[in-house]
Every structure is written in structure tokens, then in C-alpha cells.
Amino acid sequence: MSMNVQPDLEFIKAMKEAGGDTLKQCYQCATCSVACPLSSDDKPFPRKEMILAQWGLKEKLIYDPNVFLCHQCGDCTEMCPRGARPGDVLGAIRAYAYRALGWPKALATLCSSVKNLPILIGIPAAAILFCWLISGGMHIPAGEQFARVGYTQFFGHWDFRLLAKNVLFIDLIMLTAVGIALTSLYKGISALWKGMEASIGLKDVPYRPSLVQFVKKFLWPSLIEILQHNRFRECTVNVDRVKGHRPLMLGFIGLFIVTCYSLFTQDVIGIFIPSMHGPISMWNPVKLLANVSAVAMIGGIGILWLNRTKMEAAGKATNTFYDWFLIWMIMGVGVTGLAAELLRIIGIPSLGYVVYYLHLIAVAMLFLYMPYTKFAHIAYRTFAMAFERYRESSYIKNPLNQ
Amino acid sequence: MSDTAGNGAVLVVGGGISGITAALEAAEVGIDVFLVEKNAYFGGRVAQLNQYFPKLCPPTCGLEINFKRIKDNRKIRTYTLTTVKSITGGPGNFEVQLETMPRYINSNCTACGDCGQVCTDEIDDAFNLGMKKIKAAYLPHEMAFPRRFVLEKNACSPATLDAVKAACKYNAVDLDMQPQTFTLKVSSIIWSTGWNPYDANKITNLNYNSSQAIITNMMMERLAADNGPTKGKIVRPGDNKEPASFAFVQCAGSRDENHLEHCSYICCMATFKHISYIRDQYPEAKIYVFYIDLRTPGKYEHFREKFMADPNSTFIKGKVADIVAERDGGVTVIAENAVTGTKIHQKVDLCILATGMEPALGAQGKALGVNMDGNGFIVSDPERGMISAGCAKSAVDVYSSGQSSTAAALKAIQIGR
Ligand SMILES: Cc1cc2nc3c(=O)[nH]c(=O)nc-3n(C[C@H](O)[C@H](O)[C@H](O)COP(=O)(O)OP(=O)(O)OC[C@H]3O[C@@H](n4cnc5c(N)ncnc54)[C@H](O)[C@@H]3O)c2cc1C
Ligand code: SF4
Ligand code: SF4
Ligand code: SF4
Ligand code: SF4
Prior knowledge:
The structure holds two protein chains of two kinds. Chain A has helices spanning 9-17, 31-35, 47-54, 58-62, 65-69, 75-79, 86-101, 105-110, 117-135, 143-149, 165-199, 211-228, 230-234, 241-272, 285-313, 321-346, 349-369, 377-392, 394-397. By secondary structure, chain A is mostly helical. Chain A starts with 8 loop residues before the first helix and ends in a 5-residue tail after the last helix. The mean pLDDT of chain A is 89. Chain B is built from nine helices and 23 strands. In chain B, the strands form seven sheets. Chain B has a five-stranded parallel sheet with strand order 4-3-2-12-23, covered by helices on one side. A five-stranded parallel sheet of chain B has the order 14-21-15-16-17. In chain B, strands 1-11-6-5 form a four-stranded mixed sheet, with no helix packed on it. In chain B, helix 1 packs parallel to helix 2, helix 1 runs parallel beside helix 9 and helix 5 runs parallel beside helix 6 (267-281). The chains are: A mainly alpha, B alpha/beta. The interface between A and B is medium-sized, with 21 and 23 residues. The structure holds flavin-adenine dinucleotide and iron/sulfur cluster (SF4) (4 copies). One iron/sulfur cluster is lined by residues 250-251, 254-255, 263-265, 267-268, 295, 354, 356 of chain B.
């Protein structure tokens, strides 16, 4: 094997920042590929990824499905005879890949370093403050009014029936964030998919699945598998993460449903029945779901927080911004959300408004930075899992395609 | 008991090939030498080998002549079952306290074997790494030097002890022996305490205990030895099956920061040697060697080439990281072949872990003030009158052990002057 390997300083620096600088310790013994409970017989990992990273072949790594299939359990790190910490290195490669696949580049780069944290918080903070200022809602309600409307008039109120003023501003902020995130993910996943196909030498395939077939055969089974957390359960050293990750994920799904519901009621039904614009009753099943989900989310992220602290204390994981930023953001969303609600119930409007502002910032951050932070795994890993199925399917293995 | 041996005396701790060599080198220039050995016999690990490279001769051919030289040399005093308890003083005037454990059989013993005949209690055969049981009154191995029996008193019932004592015609059984401590005055100390096989149980992912089909390389030496538990027939422990396939797991516990960080240097060579043992008995057997990289020092290159060319031997670059016991008594070893990039599940009848050499002195050495490196090897420190030799110093073969022992003897002599 002879090749001209140019050391890629930018890549090496990125690896270092994301906790992957142990990679040079690797001497290619392949213990990790056997230790990894998720690595397959035909395409084992992470030994190969370690040598690719040593050689700085980042193009190969960004489009390597294995990089995204890894669940960061740390079983391989535990067994590595050289302390090369392959689990952490794969995490660092993912961080690099999210950045490389992310759009717009500037935002992706911003999300890669703790140094930028003030700016990362500052962007949504300023945007929301600006909206608040121009919305004219700039007053904090008295106790009795606060009890009635809660935060639904944070951005003020008008008598225009079709769309509540508050909803307009929230939509403006959040849909912008979501829009950027979705565009970024769409670009990223398309690039990833093409890259993954190219990596297995796929160019002209006579039979490609239709969109329906693709969803049915590859995407949907992957989603079911993710829901069940089967792969998480395969881990040994950190199997406890399931206890945190699963409630967290279910909490997110719950909140997603609630958001969709309120988007629908407020933005669509609200056009016809303006009373929909008020706060939802405490005993509405949707509100109940929201509260249960919020608790699951906070509990789940709390468990993951403790778990990660424990792993780092035991030297089983490296402390990186990449890992913590997401934990902080989710914790921020959960805690501010719950606190705002409590403040409303006990009726302290001024503090409530401040906390609600922080809550909006946290939610906006979570949406906006999703494609560039660890959060991106929900999209990239899902598609890598779908690709894994696709790669083994008759579309690829079919002799007609050879 | 106290011994003063005048100026320049040397204490050699550990009576393996290195200690023996160092003792002889020093004694043959007229220095007083005390050679102490923890076991009941001299020869160390080499005595346990079936054959040893480079010439693949039996260990007796190297050891026996040295034993004879020791017997003939009046400058060397030997102590078995003896270890160092404490050290005071410094170069030129060490005072070393030693302790000898009771053997319960005195020097009248002619090794006639009558006591073993009547003894009904049994113990694990340590020389054969526990692969068989022996009587509690025993000769450690056929070629043991000194040629004297040992009685494992703790393992015997009072009735057995009576019978053993009654059986001896030479009045050699002494049940009242006690541990004895004594002091030696020496100018320098040579540490040649050698190595122990790394405990395979500690390599948890290899599941050593899960199957009798998993053995260590030292067990392979004993299985292949004529004076071993199977009289030299390589069969699977437990069911005595003649294996049709073998897997060698290189670097088992070596080059691994969770175990031994160092390369044990000889286990790649030992594996090639074991392939030659296997080929003598099973010319057609399939052999799979899993390795990270094969380390064969230059002088042994021809050896490697010969066995790499064997059509029934496959060499796979990739460390075995999991072993699964199978119902038929065999095992499946799992590795990733780093050349093809796919995982292999290889089922074999017998699996040999190439376990490495762990320095034997361990924590005791630290307590005695011996200078040791991070891996537990003893750092030669002539300034402080302590010199290391052989595998106590670094993981090496017999030939290099001999060289470092000669060098150690020279340094020790200089300290005495
Ligand atoms: C599987 C295998 C196969 C090998 N095959 C070969 C081969 O074919 N050719 C080759 O050249 N080399 C071979 N070697 C290496 C060889 O065994 C060593 O080079 C050799 O044993 C070194 O001798 P030594 O005297 O330094 O140590 P040892 O043989 O270990 O002797 C040390 C002695 O010190 C004693 N001792 C330990 N601690 C104390 C203490 N505290 N107080 C008193 N005494 C103590 C021990 O009981 C022992 O008798 C092989 C090694 C292995 C693992
Ligand atoms: S990362 Fe560790 S276990 Fe994996 S190949 Fe490298 S050294 Fe071996
Ligand atoms: S961290 Fe876990 S899933 Fe990822 S490569 Fe290592 S063992 Fe496999
Ligand atoms: S102790 Fe006595 S009986 Fe036993 S071997 Fe020695 S001489 Fe023979
Ligand atoms: S000699 Fe070979 S088997 Fe032994 S530790 Fe070194 S490389 Fe591994």
C-alpha cells in the first residue's frame, strides 16, 4: 500500500478540538472492530476509520456510513490496548462531518467551538429581543391578566382575528430557524447519500427504489429500530444510557406532537375559531402530553448528564464541547420551559417573562443549530441506518445491478 | 545462622538460566557467590520448555552442563525455597536477610521415590501448570536439580504424613522443619528473578476459563514435552481429542496498556516453534495465526520464513478480541482481518494464547528498594550495587539472557573490588 499522505492540519486540529487526538496511538490491532457490538462482519468498524483518520482521508470519512452508525457506547474504547479511544475518535469524526456537511458554512463553523458560545446564544437572544421590541408587546402583564393569558401575549395582542400577533412572531422566529435547519439537513443528507453510494462504487444502477419503496423498505424499518433502541441495548459498558436516551427521545416525540397540534390549532383552526389562541387548559390531553413529555425530557437529559459526568470522571469518555453543547441546550429548553410554566401557575409575571424569554432562546438554538451539533445524529444516523439496509438489499445485491 | 563471606561476595537472586549463568561467571573468577531460588529446583522457566530455539534442543542440553558446573564449583553456595526478606547497607556492605521455607525432606534423600508411592494425597502439578495432579511427596520434575524430593505437608492428612515418614529408608523425612531466616553479607546483588506467564484469566474478553480448548503457550510447551502431562502428545486437555485445527492468539495480554504494555519479544518466535511441534505430530492440521505484526528478531528470520511457507498455515493480521466456547469442545475465535477488512469467525479444536512475560519480582521488589520501570522490569543500578539480568531486566530469549547475565556478573565483580 503506497500513497502520498499529506497531513491535513485543519482536519487534525478539528480532531483535536473534538476529543479525537488519541487517534495517533492506534496501531491497527482491530480489537475495537470485534469489541464493537454494532459492527457487522462484512463492514466492520472502527478500526478502518482509525487508519483513514490517521491518514487524514476526511473525504472518505464524511461519507462513511459506519461513522454515523456508531452509537458512541465506548465498548471499543474500553478494550483498546493503546488508549487510542476509538469511540471518542468516531465522535470527533462525526462532529467534523456535521460541520463539513452543514450549510451555511459560517453557522456550522460557529457551532464547533466553545469559544463561540456567547455568539451562539447571542444570535437568537438578539433576534427575539428585536422581535419583542418591534412587536410592541413590551409590557409585563398584571397578575390577574397573566393568570388568564399566560405567555400567549408575550409579543403583544391585536384584534386581527385571523392570526394572533403572538403566534405570528413565534412563527417568524421558529419557522425561520426550522427552515434554515431543514434546508441544511436536506443538503447534508443528499450529499451524504450520494457520497455513501459512491463509496460502495454505485454509479449507474438500473433499478432504484421509488420514494414510497424507499420509505417502506429502508427508512421506516430504521425508524422502528431507533424507537426500540435495540442498538443501544447492545452496548455493555454504557448500557445505562438507554435509561436516559429513551425517555428523552420519547419526550421529544411527545413535544413534537404537541407542537404540531398547536401549530395546527393556532395557525389553521385559529383562523376560524379565535379562542384557540389562548393558552391550552391544564386538563386538555394535549397539555397533559406536553407536561409528561417535558418531564421525560428533563429526566432523560438529566440521566444522560449524570452518565456523561460519570464516564468522564472514570476516564471512559473525553470532555468535549460537541457532547456537552447538546446536553446543555436540551437541559436549557426543559428547565426554562418548566420554570416558566410554574411561574405562571404561582403567578409571578415579571420573572415569568424573563424565564420565558430564555426559553424561547433555548428552543430557537435547538432548532437552528440542530444540523451542526450532536443533535444532527437524529437525521444523519437515521439515513445511515437506512443506507445500511439499502446496501444489503436486492437493489444492490441483485446481480442485475452488478 | 549467619554467613560472612568476606569481601566482594555476590548475591544472585533467582536461579533460572540467567541467575545460573551470572553465578558461574562470577564464581569462575574466584568470587564467592550465593545463589538463591524461590522454587524447590533450579533452572527456572527454561526447564519447562520442550525445546528451545534457536537450535530446538531440549532444555537439558543447556541446563545440565551448568548444574554440573555449579556442583563442581566450591565458590557457589545454593539455596532453594529461599527468598529475600530485607536488605540493609549499600554497595560493598549489604546485609541481606533471607528466609528458607521448609522442604520437610533433608539432604539424606536419594530420590528413590518410596515416599511418593505410599502418599495418597495429591496436589496440582505446578511444573505442568496444573494440567495434572501429582502426589504431595514429589520430585518437581524428572531432571530437577537438586535431585531431592519435596513434601507438601499442608496438603497431607496426619495418616499420610505417618506413612510417608515410615516409607523412607534413609531417614530423610523431617516433619518438624521450620522456616529459617539467615543473613548474608555481600557487596552486590544480581536480580535474575525472571518472569511469570501473564495470567490469562485477566484478559477477560478471551474467556480463558470458558473452555478447555483454550490453553496458553507455556501449556503448549508442557503438552509437547516428553516429560509432560500427556507424554509429549499434543491433545486437547479434558477430552484428549487430537486437534485437527489450531488457532494462535498473538499478543494475548502483551502490548496492551490494560495488561502488559511491553512486547514480550519471544512469543512470536514461540508460536513458530509451536507450529514445528504441531507439524511433527499433525502434518495436515490447519493452523491459523492471528497477529498484529509478527516480531521475529533478525537472527530468527529463517525460522519464520520456513513456517510462513507452510500451505496449511494461515496468517491473519488482526488481533483476536473474542473467543466463544462451542458445544463440540472446540472454540470460535473472532477477529477482524485488517487486510481484507472483514470479520473472521474461525472455529478450531485448540486455541493457544501467546501470553507474555510478566516480570516476576513485582511489588516485593519495590518494598526491597529495587529500582523498577513502569512495566515492572528491574533497572540495573550499579551505583547502588544492584544489577539486573535476563528476563528480570527485559523480556528476552535465552541467548540474550546469557549475554546480559555475563555483563551483570562483570559489573558485580567490579563493585566488590
Ligand atoms: C512460551 C515461551 C517459549 C519460550 N521459548 C523460548 C525458546 O525456545 N528459546 C529461548 O531462547 N527463549 C524462549 N523463551 C524465553 C525464555 O523462557 C526466557 O528467556 C528465560 O526463561 C529467561 O530466563 P531467566 O533466568 O531470566 O528467567 P526465569 O527462567 O524466569 O528464571 C527466574 C528464576 O527466578 C526465580 N525467582 C523469581 N522470583 C524470585 C524471588 N523473589 N526470589 C528468588 N527466586 C525468584 C524463579 O523461580 C525462576 O527460577 C520462551 C518463553 C515463553 C513464554
Ligand atoms: S483503535 Fe485501538 S483497538 Fe482499534 S485498531 Fe487501533 S489500537 Fe486497536
Ligand atoms: S463507540 Fe460503541 S458503537 Fe461506536 S465504534 Fe465503539 S463500540 Fe462501536
Ligand atoms: S524422601 Fe526418602 S523415600 Fe522419599 S524419595 Fe527421598 S529418600 Fe526416597
Ligand atoms: S513477541 Fe509477538 S506475540 Fe509477543 S508481544 Fe511481541 S508482537 Fe506480540
